[in-house]
Amino acid sequence: MILSASWWWLLALGALLPWAGPWRGRDAVQNVLRSLLFVVLAAALSQPYLRRDDAPAERMLILDLSASVDLPARDSAIDHAVRFAEAGSRDHTHLVLVGTDAGSETGSLTGAFGTITRLASDGPEGATPLSAAFARANELIPRTGRGAVTFASDGLATRPDDARAIASLRARGVPVHVVALPVGATAPTPVALNWSGELRVGATARLAATVVAHGGAAPGQVQLRSGGKLLASAPYTGAEREVVALSFEPAEAGFIEAELVVVAAADGGGDATTGGRRASGAASERPLPAVLAVREPYRLLYFGHLQQNGAARLSKVLGPGFAVTEVDPADETDLDAALKASDLVILDDRPAETFPAEAERRVMNAVTHEGLGLVMCGGRGAFGSGGWHDRAIAAILPIDFVQKEEQRDPSTTLVIVIDTSGSMGYVRVQLAKEVARLAMRRLLPHDKVGIVEFYGSKRWAAPIQPASNAIELQRALNRMNAGGGTVIMPALEEAFYGLQNVDTRYKHVLVLTDAGVESGDYESLMRQMVKEGINVSTVLTGGGYHSEFLVNIANWGKGRFYDVPDRFNLPEIILKQPSTAKLPAYRQGMHRVRSRGGAGWWGDVQTRAIPQLAGYVESKARPGSEVLLETVEHSHPILTTWRYGLGRVTTLGTEPVGEGTRPWRDWSEYGRVLARVMERTAADTRDPFRFEVEYDGGEARLHAIRQCPRTGMAADAVPIARVRGADMPAGDGAADESALTFTARSPDHFIACRPVPAPGSVLRIDACASTSPQRSQPVVVASPVVAEQCVDPARGIDMAALAAATGGRVLSLDGDWSTANAAASGQRLLPLASWLFAAALILFIFELTWRRRPQAQARLRRNTDDDPTEDRLL
Question: Which long-range contacts (CB under 8 A, 24 or more apart) does 800-804 make?
Answer without folding.
Answer: 800/178, 802/151, 802/166, 802/176, 802/178, 803/175, 803/176, 803/177, 803/178
